[in-house]
């Protein structure tokens, strides 16, 4: 999976961005649609033309401009919206997976390129796991099972970063750069907020 835009597994980035914009807010002029989608007007027009050819969008000429909206009656529109929003679906699945562990973690978060949205198909999915009590064998088993499942969903390998609360606090006190990265970029998936774990009890 390309974490900069997972939908590019099945459609262009421009098309996915246009669909996300239209799904979120109804009707647009072409230039406004391009601005909201974060693509150039040329790429927006190209995406609109392809989608209109398949009947997925309606284009109305109005006062010298063109207004664009999704055709919500089209049989493919809901699957297409779902594909355009694959990143949201994967984050939901990751949260469901780590919340199903027999031995719960104090905190789990996605970090690194997957969290920032600048990874590609070869990037690992980096996941911070702040461990609670439990035998090492139990942790190894559930991380291996989840890693295999996530690999099947996404095509990416998982890189687990396991740490206990005391070690996490020591890393923060020592000013280790990765802690600042977690504070800045990490997407929480379960457990207590990271900042509350970083504070040593008084």
Characterize the structure shown.
By secondary structure, the chain is α+β, with helices and mostly antiparallel strands. The protein folds into two domains: about 5-85, Winged helix-like DNA-binding domain superfamily/Winged helix DNA-binding domain (Arc Repressor Mutant, subunit A, Orthogonal Bundle), CATH 1.10.10; about 85-200, Beta Polymerase, domain 2 (2-Layer Sandwich). Helix content is about 50%, strand content about 20%. Strands 6-5-4-7 form a four-stranded mixed beta sheet, with helices on both faces. The protein starts with 12 loop residues before the first helix and ends with a helix.
Properties at a glance:
3-stranded antiparallel sheet, 4-stranded mixed sheet, alpha+beta, Beta Polymerase, domain 2, Arc Repressor Mutant, subunit A, 2 domains, 202 residues, 7 strands
Write a short abstract of this structure.
With 202 residues, the protein is α+β, with helices and mostly antiparallel strands.
CATH architecture of the largest domain: 2-Layer Sandwich
**What is the overall silhouette?**
elongated
Look at the helices and sheets and give the structural class: alpha+beta
Instruction: Give a quick account of the main beta sheet: strands, pairing sense, barrel closure.
Output: 4 strands, mixed
- Helix/strand order, N-terminal first: HEHHEEHHEHEHEHHEH
In quaternary terms, these chains amount to single chain
How many helices in DSSP terms?
10
Roughly what fraction of the amino acids lie in strands?
A: 15-25%
Number of strands: 7
Number of domains: 2
pLDDT average, as an integer? 92
Uncertain residue ranges: none
CATH class identity of the largest domain: Alpha Beta
Strand order of the biggest β-sheet: 6-5-4-7
């Amino acid at each position: 999976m390309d974490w900069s835009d997972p939908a590019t597994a099945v459609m262009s980035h421009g098309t996915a961005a246009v669909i996300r914009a239209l799904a979120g807010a109804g009707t647009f002029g072409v230039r406004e649609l391009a601005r909201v989608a974060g693509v150039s007007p040329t790429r927006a027009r190209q995406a609109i033309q392809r989608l209109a050819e398949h009947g997925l969008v309606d284009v109305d000429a109005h006062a010298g401009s063109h207004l664009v909206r999704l055709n919500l009656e089209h049989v493919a529109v809901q699957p297409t919206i779902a594909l355009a929003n694959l990143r949201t679906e994967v984050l939901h699945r990751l949260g469901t997976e780590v919340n199903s562990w027999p031995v719960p973690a104090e905190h789990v978060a996605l970090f690194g390129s997957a969290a920032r949205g600048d990874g590609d198909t070869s990037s690992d999915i980096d996941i911070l796991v702040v461990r609670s009590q439990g035998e090492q064998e139990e942790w190894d088993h559930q991380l291996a099972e989840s890693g295999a499942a996530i690999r099947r969903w996404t095509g990416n390998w998982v890189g687990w970063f396991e740490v206990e609360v005391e070690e996490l606090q020591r890393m923060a006190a020592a000013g280790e750069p990765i802690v600042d990265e977690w504070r800045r970029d990490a997407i929480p998936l379960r457990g207590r907020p990271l900042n509350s774990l970083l504070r040593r009890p008084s």
